[in-house]
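It is worth pausing here to work through a concrete case rather than discussing structure prediction in the abstract. The textbook approach is simple: state the sequence, then state the predicted structure, then interpret. We follow exactly that order.
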Amino acid sequence: MGRTRFSLIFLVIILAVPLVGAVAIPDFPKSTVTVTGYWKFWDKDSNLRDLKYARVEVWDYNATTSHTLLGVAYTNSDGYYSITVTSTEVEGPDIYDKIFACNGHSVWVGASFNDTNTTYFYSTEDEVYWNIGGGTLNLGMRNIPYDDYRWAYYIYDLIADDAWNYLYYTVGWDNHYNLGVQWHLNNFGSSYYDNSVEGINVGHLDRRDPDVILHEYGHFVMHKIYTNYPTHDCTGHVWYLPFSEECGWKEGWPTYLQAAIQGDKFYEDMDNAYLIYSLEMPLHPSSQIELTGADVESVVAAALWDVFDSEVEVWDKLASGIQDAWEIVDIENPYTAIEFESDWLGSSSGSNCSLINIFDHLEIGNAVCIFLPFSRK
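Step two, the predicted structure:
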């Protein structure tokens, strides 16, 4: 009996040892990998350009279960990104990436501006790097494929880079509203801004018309800086025909803004409406007579362009850039060009006579300056 009792006690002690040691079993080994790469896209002139500020996702491929998202990064101003990710796969993760037409801040481009899940992306799932055990994986310099979907990235870049940089660095306006832009291959309607959802629709035929796209962006900007966005119905408006003073302003200001962003006085819509005209002197397309009046959108755009530009004409001695006009629009929220002129004259810009001369030349408003060097009337 004594020997049996000793054997049982000994057995209990032996069995207890692994139970205590089980607590100290280490985690599965982890692979830490720094993934780097560059992305470029094709612009409307088929030039390769850096894809800036765009969202990149790094994924771990799995042949039998769902793939695993390892991390998110954003390209810099050179289209470059670098991100360090960790995986618990024993042999190391099988890595590929996705590049999106969005930046998580100012804009995303998708098939529907009502659903961010439709944001366009390109996946390198067919180019997996297998069993990366650690260190640095340089995916190199790659291009968005030269197919129809490349236009999503061109549209994205216009707003995320050109428009955002210009307004932020000239007037300090930050588009942080994550604007949705709707574009798809079967969308053959016109481009427009939908203020009810605060999104832009880009018709497929306008996909490579930056003037049209940034004009619609101008509506979005107006919506954001106005306390009460103009609700005048301008359906059927035409750039060279009188409509209303409210629509002249509502459509003219975005046309001017896109010109300021690009530094280009010509407005072009080559793929859809086949039109081109100069904001320096808008002419009726049939008579070639210079257009005038606050109810004509191209005239309003031309007046604002004369305030902006540095080109000297008899009636235009003003070279104000965007700052003064932006301040008037941002603070006063005018609804017509005549209201804009009145707001300007009530400000402290110090250029009243020069502004009156421009507006007088285009037959906008009735302000008078005794030092007026030129008058059309």
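Step three, interpretation. The CA atoms of residues 60 and 68 lie 5 Å apart. Helices lie at 2-21, 150-171, 210-225, 245-262, 297-308, 323-332, 337-345, 352-361.
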